[in-house]
Design brief:
Oligomer: single chain
CATH architecture of the largest domain: Orthogonal Bundle
CATH topology of the largest domain: Multidrug-efflux Transporter Regulator, Chain: A, Domain 2
Number of helices: 6
Structural class: mainly alpha
Amino acid sequence: MKIGELAERTGVSIRSLRYYERQGLITPLRKANGYREYSPLAVETVETIKLYLNLGLSTEEIAGFLNCVLMKKEAFCAEVMPLYRSKLEDIERQLLQLNQIKSNLEERIASIQQEQKESE
């Protein structure tokens, strides 16, 4: 299938598919006229990439284990669990930071509102 059909079948833009190709995540065959030709398995590969992107992983991280998860179950790919744990730790740190920012903003709002009440 051509890149336009792959884009249509997966809901991924042609630009993103070309990016995935540059990152080594998908590999089309090249016809004599230079057109990309994708195998039917490319749909599954792109859907798998989308899954991992939705988990917050980068294409570089996905490239480290994509072939493994396409060949085996995710549970049998040693690279996956450490990456998931690391990503979860990152998210937990970000949540702590965001909660601190939220608390600081709430304090500032309360302080300003108190000042406004006192000046009335």
